[in-house]
Amino acid sequence: MFKKIKNKFNKSLEMMRYQRRITKSFKKLEHHRKLTKEQKKEVNDFYIGMIGRTVPLYCHEYFYSRTGVFAKEYIPNNFYHCELLPRANTRQLMRAYGDKNMCDFLFPKENIAHTILKNMNGYFYYEGRPVSEEEAISLCQNMEKVIIKPSCESQGRSVQLFSVKDGITDLKGKSLGQLFKDYKKDFLIQEWVRQHKDMAALNPTSVNTMRILSYRSGMEVLIIYSVVRIGRSGSVIDNQCAGGISTTIDNDGKLGKYAFGGYTEDNVDSTDTGIVLEGYQLPSYEKAIEFVKRLHLKLPFFNLVGWDVAIQEDGEPVLIEFNTSPGLSQSAFKSGMGENTERIIRELWHRPNTWFPD
């Protein structure tokens, strides 16, 4: 009995936390659009028909205000994170599978961004071989243009591009040993991906990735949506929540008219390099979609997965990382899960909530 009360209380706290994030951002928007009675009824009927109850409408108003597009399929972010994801993905395995250092173990023989050095729970591995910290420093003394990032965090936090010569980095002259101490444990050093020229044209200082959200239903993998994430001038990070912008990709691999950044930056129609977004053709989009579908079938414990895929110089898709607790790019996509929204919610609603069990 006490455990049920505790789960209900924790769930309520999480629901409020996610709602506050959007309502706070709503106040900063330039345009505020209120839902009409007819629109409210359309949303309420839609959700009552699927789950037998209504959902809060704050996200519908926020995304309608931000994009100018009303859609009953918008999904409240607290409902998504506290009701849908917990039914789709197994929480107990999220940290282990979500560790970026696990990619090559999970997807052997697949095209994964090459990791030179791993730190896993404080232990070092160089090219897959266990080594001491001293040996790791010695082996990595001279490297050109590599990425260091935490392996168990998301949203582009603490991602840095650096070079090192004779053990001294170009990050304010820090030694490699000091850099390792800064990251403490659970991090990796990865080769910089040499991206296709058409991807680099969007912003040459960041590896601009496709974020592809997929849903597994039995042996079928649905692509919910794809967006491209583009870094800003001088930045090595493309994440929208870390200063980058994102826009939709249509079924032919062409970009949408506008990109969105953060929670409030709207209607960006060109990149910092001057590329007009609308109709811009991305390379190898179909290959990236087939790549993601193949990879998702190898993850039995996660039905909703966000994939960050880059396109190499030779046009081949390469996995940078994947996310077992992906957010929804509803501003860029202008919907929750598009035409698949009703199907996915209905399928998931009959599954147990593994994060907040009743």
Task: Report what the structure shows.
There is one protein chain. The chain is an alpha+beta fold and 358 residues long. The protein has three domains: 2-89, no CATH class; 92-109 and 195-324, 2-Layer Sandwich (D-amino Acid Aminotransferase, Chain A, domain 1), CATH 3.30.470; 115-191. Helix content is 32%, strand content 22%. The protein is built from twelve helices and 14 strands. It has helices at residues 2-26, 37-51, 58-67, 77-88, 94-98, 103-106, 133-139, 176-183, 197-200, 285-296, 330-333, 341-349, and strands at 115-120, 123-126, 129-131, 143-150, 160-165, 168-169, 187-191, 209-217, 220-230, 245-248, 259-261, 265-268, 304-311, 317-323. It has a seven-stranded antiparallel sheet with strand order 3-2-1-7-4-5-6. The longest helix has 25 residues, at 2-26.
- Strand fraction equals 15-25%
Radius of gyration: 21 Å
Return residue spans where pLDDT drops below 50 for at least 5 consecutive residues: none
Number of helices: 12
What is the number of strand segments? 14
Classified in CATH, the superfamily of the largest domain is ATP-grasp fold, B domain
Helix share bin: 25-40%
Main sheet? Answer: 7 strands, antiparallel
How many angstroms does the end-to-end distance come to?
10 Å
Count of the separate structural domains: 3
Order of helices and strands: HHHHHHEEEHEEEHEHEEEEEHEEHH
CATH names the topology of the largest domain as D-amino Acid Aminotransferase, Chain A, domain 1
Quick check: average pLDDT? 93
What top-tier CATH class of the largest domain fits best?
A: Alpha Beta
Write out the strand line-up for the largest beta sheet, numbering strands in chain order.
3-2-1-7-4-5-6
Shape: globular
Tell me what the CATH architecture of the largest domain is. 2-Layer Sandwich
Structural class: alpha+beta
